[in-house]
Amino acid sequence: MLDSLYNKSVVCPVCQNKIEVTKVKSKDCVVASRDSDFCVYYESVNPLFYEVWVCEHCGYAALQERFENISPIEAKIVKENISKYWKPRSFCGERDVDKAIEAFKLALYNLCKISPKPIEYAKVCLRIAWLYRMKKDEQQEIKFLNHALRYYRETYENEPFPVGKLDEHTCVYMIGELSRRVGNYDDAIFWFNKIISSPGARENKALIDSTREQYHLAKEAKEAKEKA
Ligand SMILES: [Zn+2]
């Protein structure tokens, strides 16, 4: 295993078996660059590849941050809908991008069964899109950006803010930016305008600056599309 990785023991909250999960040492997570939708690239190992923990015994999979926060009802749903059909296989150790995508899709499948809040889907779909971006598979990237976009919109329309760590302006920014990335420039301009014209958003200077930049990109793309 790579020097940057280490294993940690946790108890699976669904089947109660002790499992090993792989993590990246935080000192080895050196940021190289960031995309406008917050996708982060690292100098060496990308911790994103390890964000989903999978129980090899029962097939329960979730983002690390929510892995242990599963209710007894949700655990029962996983047991009945996933564990029954699960063929034991391990996700421990080094992951390449394909193994990471497989882990994230398992997490997405678990979410579909336990139907949590839309923000949970948004996070997982966005990360799957990033992994496809790293693989340069644009078709799949756009497909998952569209899913993420739908769930961010549902979050915006239905949830009181903040939703976990997500504030309202960042959610609106994500809707604008994902709309731009999937080619819905009118939508992107509409959502970016919402931030630019909101007095409350001005407190977050970094967000306002990014919004202005992405707003111009969306305008340019819209004009280019109309000329074509
Ligand atoms: Zn388990």
TrEMBL record:
InterPro entries named among the record's database cross-references:
DUF2225, TPR-like_helical_dom_sf
* SUPFAM superfamilies, per database record: TPR-like (SSF48452)
Gene3D superfamilies recorded for this chain?
A: Tetratricopeptide repeat domain
Q: What protein name is recorded for this chain?
A: DUF2225 domain-containing protein
* UniProt source species: Acetivibrio thermocellus AD2
Taxonomic path: Bacteria, Bacillati, Bacillota, Clostridia, Eubacteriales
